[in-house]
Write a structure and sequence with these properties.
Elements: H1 11-22, H2 28-36, H3 40-69, H4 73-107
Helix pairs in contact: 1-3, 2-3, 3-4
Pfam family, one: Yip1
Subcellular location: Golgi apparatus membrane; Membrane
Protein name: Protein YIPF
Length: 111
């Protein structure tokens, strides 16, 4: 069995799709360095360009997952964002646990 990036759901196809999706992010680095030399208008413009590139990268990532796995658009969005949502929920649960432990330790005087 040879490697074919056009197969349904292959790692190579997904890797290639994400490579093309994140390619526009490369252009934010020179824009950011140029904005450091400019006034606040240039920095604001750099921020807007960076935001636009981030949104465009997310859209292209959805298209990459959609095309690689033959998913609908909603399923591709879910495939990208459900793991991220689970990570943030677990992170918030961990932070809440640490805060509770600190509060208990402070109230009991570390005994």
């Amino acid at each position: 069995m040879s490697w074919n990036p056009r197969r349904r759901g292959s790692y190579g196809g997904l890797f290639a799709g994400f490579g093309f999706a994140y390619l526009p992010a490369v252009f934010t680095v020179p824009v950011t360095f140029m904005a450091l030399q400019l006034d606040s208008f240039g920095q604001g413009l750099s921020g807007m360009i960076g935001f636009g590139v981030a949104v465009w990268t997310i859209v292209l990532s959805v298209f990459a997952v959609q095309a690689n796995n033959n998913f609908s658009t909603g399923r591709a969005i879910a495939a990208l964002f459900i793991p991220l949502a689970v990570f943030f929920i677990l992170l918030l649960a961990f932070i809440a646990f640490v805060v509770v432990v600190i509060v208990i330790a402070v109230n009991e005087g570390f005994t």
